[in-house]
Amino acid sequence: MSRLFSLILVIVFASEAVSALDFCVADLKGPQTPAGYTCKSPANVTVDDFVFSGLAKAGNTANLIKAAVTPAFDAQFPGVNGLGLSIARLDLAVGGVIPMHTHPGANELLVVTQGKILAGFISSANSVYYKTLNKGEVMLFPQGLLHFQINAAGVTSVAFVSFSSPNPGLQITDFAFFANDLPSKIVETTTFLDDAQVKKLKGVLGGTN
Amino acid sequence: MSRLFSLILVIVFASEAVSALDFCVADLKGPQTPAGYTCKSPANVTVDDFVFSGLAKAGNTANLIKAAVTPAFDAQFPGVNGLGLSIARLDLAVGGVIPMHTHPGANELLVVTQGKILAGFISSANSVYYKTLNKGEVMLFPQGLLHFQINAAGVTSVAFVSFSSPNPGLQITDFAFFANDLPSKIVETTTFLDDAQVKKLKGVLGGTN
Amino acid sequence: MSRLFSLILVIVFASEAVSALDFCVADLKGPQTPAGYTCKSPANVTVDDFVFSGLAKAGNTANLIKAAVTPAFDAQFPGVNGLGLSIARLDLAVGGVIPMHTHPGANELLVVTQGKILAGFISSANSVYYKTLNKGEVMLFPQGLLHFQINAAGVTSVAFVSFSSPNPGLQITDFAFFANDLPSKIVETTTFLDDAQVKKLKGVLGGTN
Amino acid sequence: MSRLFSLILVIVFASEAVSALDFCVADLKGPQTPAGYTCKSPANVTVDDFVFSGLAKAGNTANLIKAAVTPAFDAQFPGVNGLGLSIARLDLAVGGVIPMHTHPGANELLVVTQGKILAGFISSANSVYYKTLNKGEVMLFPQGLLHFQINAAGVTSVAFVSFSSPNPGLQITDFAFFANDLPSKIVETTTFLDDAQVKKLKGVLGGTN
Amino acid sequence: MSRLFSLILVIVFASEAVSALDFCVADLKGPQTPAGYTCKSPANVTVDDFVFSGLAKAGNTANLIKAAVTPAFDAQFPGVNGLGLSIARLDLAVGGVIPMHTHPGANELLVVTQGKILAGFISSANSVYYKTLNKGEVMLFPQGLLHFQINAAGVTSVAFVSFSSPNPGLQITDFAFFANDLPSKIVETTTFLDDAQVKKLKGVLGGTN
Amino acid sequence: MSRLFSLILVIVFASEAVSALDFCVADLKGPQTPAGYTCKSPANVTVDDFVFSGLAKAGNTANLIKAAVTPAFDAQFPGVNGLGLSIARLDLAVGGVIPMHTHPGANELLVVTQGKILAGFISSANSVYYKTLNKGEVMLFPQGLLHFQINAAGVTSVAFVSFSSPNPGLQITDFAFFANDLPSKIVETTTFLDDAQVKKLKGVLGGTN
């Protein structure tokens, strides 16, 4: 029976290609496309392409925001390529904050696994939605909208955040305004911030012009 | 021949439904779905559902930003529902500016039809891309990224901006930070702006807390 | 300034519809569509539509599989509607197992938050990918492929699983074969299982015929 | 065991909604959306929603084109709603022809099940691809491109055509030009056809103006 | 006139790229992407890229399941690449059966062209939908759900099955469980099948461990 | 602070890949995929990839249709690759006409910026929708449907047309029927046009056979 079954198997799986689109592990050395990276040959794929260990330890929060974001996006975890999903770990030490930011390419779903986090987002209609989340609670942040997370516990808080894309992008407003060479004059004209404020934050964040 | 042809016609177009998905003009009184509004019955659709005259005249720029955005999104122009496209008109008087903002739901393509516009966007990598555009020049602003437009002419400038969604959304950073009841303390913690700066702009834009 | 700014605001946000597609919180009493539920009116949406507390406590594992799956899919957590994301919590007591199953509608990404889990999936090419995952490790399970999770620790293990759809579906193979009225004869013909085996499991799982 | 398993079952399938998106059988009396019809309640769905018998008998080819198209699109076969697939049957009597047409909403895949068919399409680059297909042969017609089928056998030919949409649409060029009230003057200006030719075909196909 | 028309033609079709996305015939030697294979140059495409003759003759049913599946997926029929469609031929000799399986990547639509077929599927809610189909009848099998086909005629039955993807995948449950090196212990723990049953089918299907 | 912030920046933007999918400027020398061209390395992208100047001047209307279409599709404007948008400029001299055509791959949105244009389309149900548009008025043309534009002013008219795809395709009916080697006999059989009419237009447009 086995041999005859196999005949069918041979017909149906005549090409490696048949199984390739079960998944498309990124070939990070290949070109990118609007739909993601080209695929590693299925013949070379192992279970380790589907497992990521980089979120097992805490990110380094010894910085001024007392927080760390550790991504498992396609560039770090090639298995997510083409699957419409990725994940990251947030570590927020006491006093830690993830500054106002957006993900241009994905919706986000956060689950607190340690501590308490004050999290919120602002809609296109400028409505504000925020709440303090306890361990095990989940919150959504729709694609492209400004949001933030602040540690609300007296201990380090941890969360895992899933995204609806293997490459959600990340635009931190302060970095976009102050950490590059966009002329201060343009920043001021388009944000109504005072010149002194712009210059101060450009100084802190390493921006020029 | 006509009668016999018509027999086929009757079979093929037996249901109004067949033609409905050529287009799906929004029934603005119906419920919305993740894919847009429910469709107006094709029997009630006329050419006027596909034509919008609201962009023919200039928006009112007699305001402090000396600029106006006139949208033809699904809520104003129900014909775009489900078609992955919409449009708006920008009027920028002398000194006019469209402040830093994002469209969470669409890419944007701007064409200048009068005057000159200095336009730019900032990528997730904090790179800045900006240029002064002359009449007839086109510029892209990818989805969810911060961007701005400033009149660069000594006269009123006008542009039409197309979007890759019937409802691109619009989040003006200043409005998101300062024009609602998000507590100043949270704004400051998540933006590193000074308290005085936050309070000043909350005052100007009508924010509270 | 505030008043004049607001004029623009009024033009741009003339319709509630503009902000609606930032998100589309499910109206669970409305009809479903191929793209999900119809949307609750944005005017009635509060932060609680974006927060889910049901995963904060452990599922009840006092059953023979010594395991529990607690979903936060659209039917439980209406905020995920239309966002291409959902989440569930797995609790695996000592000896616990999530039996072979598929999610017809989504890719899955698991992160272990307590204990150790032996997890694996089988591809269309019948290749097997499995590994024992420690706390903080992440594993992918591509859409529609058979997979399983087994507690590999001497204590209760916990994981959060994210999905690339608000409604991933769940088909447990044993339930599909043995927990309904599909005639034993058909089950045997299409699975090559022995009659005694089919009858035994139909008995255990409440199937008939 | 059955009872305890069922506990899980109850948790996981707590809502009818969970299974609903396995499929979304069209409620033809409900509204349409850009993604298709609203769904019939899963509780009322039976196997007959997934089976269509209307293609079992030949269409009536006693007409001047000696051909018939029998569709199983969403309006005829509500089970295809939301599934990205539909099907139709072509009957071509001796001398039969399906005139030049496009499907604005779907790619098409034809398989000949009786006789021989000369079929072809024209690309955007005006290249022509045509061939005579024998029984069992398959041909593709990309979305939106002009194509035709002509009986090439001395007997009736039959084919089944699948589409990549539950509602592919159908625009027969002759009907679009000549079977409505589009003024002859406009037809002539935009097609370069002679006035006599336009008037003749308007007459045959029942067009006016 | 021709020459002047051609001037426009030259402008509009200045690049080969314009016509490329009418279709994207797979370059099977190129890399794959999450959206399919890279495209063969349109200049090298001929009608034979859009025609497939491999389904014209019956598959070999001289095996124990007395059935054959002959696919025209992207790997066999490169023209379907990127078109969201593919097709296969089923041959079921007397007593033939296509065992329980899923297509992780596509919905399926079957049309019987010879004989009678008993076909069915099982939903996420464990409901069973099955029926005996006569020649010309059509049945749907939603993506990722277990389904089967059994010859119900005293003669060979034939069907064509269309899929909503150029690469639907195929996971035969018995092959996934018993035709690889997944340890028997894991199979038993995750399926509740008896050790003897698992060992027996592993023996038949060539599995190890 | 800057240095410590930068530590986070380094973690989050560890790979160039993270920012790549903000946009995917086409590498026109690379292969195409069903989702578009492969991406130019983000490191080599400049603002000029997002700006297109080719629509700033009028197309040459010194031809028999007295009209010109100047496209900014992906082949001309690589920045639109993957963004679901493109644009073109229409110039219609006095008496100018854009003949009946379809875009197989995109919806279209036209805005008149000079003069007056009589524009219309025909639905799958053969309904005609047409109107004379003034400067600043906008009209929609759904994907794949036949449409046309005719200058309705005593001066040159100009419009910008946006598309819901970086590569909408363009099939001009007359060119498809008469400007290639499709045999006259087939054209006549599938369009019901008279032999003299077909031969005449083949002559004008350079067709053969």
Automatic annotation (TrEMBL), chains A, B, C, D, E, F:
<comment type="similarity">
    <text>Belongs to the germin family.</text>
</comment>
<dbReference type="InterPro" id="IPR011051">
    <property type="entry name" value="RmlC_Cupin_sf"/>
</dbReference>
<keyword id="KW-0052">Apoplast</keyword>
<dbReference type="InterPro" id="IPR001929">
    <property type="entry name" value="Germin"/>
</dbReference>
<dbReference type="InterPro" id="IPR019780">
    <property type="entry name" value="Germin_Mn-BS"/>
</dbReference>
<dbReference type="InterPro" id="IPR014710">
    <property type="entry name" value="RmlC-like_jellyroll"/>
</dbReference>
<keyword id="KW-0479">Metal-binding</keyword>
<keyword id="KW-0964">Secreted</keyword>
<keyword id="KW-1015">Disulfide bond</keyword>
<feature type="binding site">
    <location>
        <position position="101"/>
    </location>
    <ligand>
        <name>Mn(2+)</name>
    </ligand>
</feature>
<dbReference type="InterPro" id="IPR006045">
    <property type="entry name" value="Cupin_1"/>
</dbReference>
<feature type="signal peptide">
    <location>
        <begin position="1"/>
        <end position="20"/>
    </location>
</feature>
<keyword id="KW-0732">Signal</keyword>
<dbReference type="GO" id="GO:0048046">
    <property type="term" value="C:apoplast"/>
</dbReference>
<dbReference type="GO" id="GO:0030145">
    <property type="term" value="F:manganese ion binding"/>
</dbReference>
<feature type="domain" description="Cupin type-1">
    <location>
        <begin position="53"/>
        <end position="199"/>
    </location>
</feature>
<feature type="binding site">
    <location>
        <position position="108"/>
    </location>
    <ligand>
        <name>Mn(2+)</name>
    </ligand>
</feature>
<protein>
    <recommendedName>
        <fullName>Germin-like protein</fullName>
    </recommendedName>
</protein>
<feature type="binding site">
    <location>
        <position position="103"/>
    </location>
    <ligand>
        <name>oxalate</name>
    </ligand>
</feature>
<feature type="binding site">
    <location>
        <position position="147"/>
    </location>
    <ligand>
        <name>Mn(2+)</name>
    </ligand>
</feature>
<feature type="binding site">
    <location>
        <position position="108"/>
    </location>
    <ligand>
        <name>oxalate</name>
    </ligand>
</feature>
<feature type="disulfide bond">
    <location>
        <begin position="24"/>
        <end position="39"/>
    </location>
</feature>
<keyword id="KW-0464">Manganese</keyword>
<feature type="binding site">
    <location>
        <position position="103"/>
    </location>
    <ligand>
        <name>Mn(2+)</name>
    </ligand>
</feature>
<dbReference type="Pfam" id="PF00190">
    <property type="entry name" value="Cupin_1"/>
</dbReference>
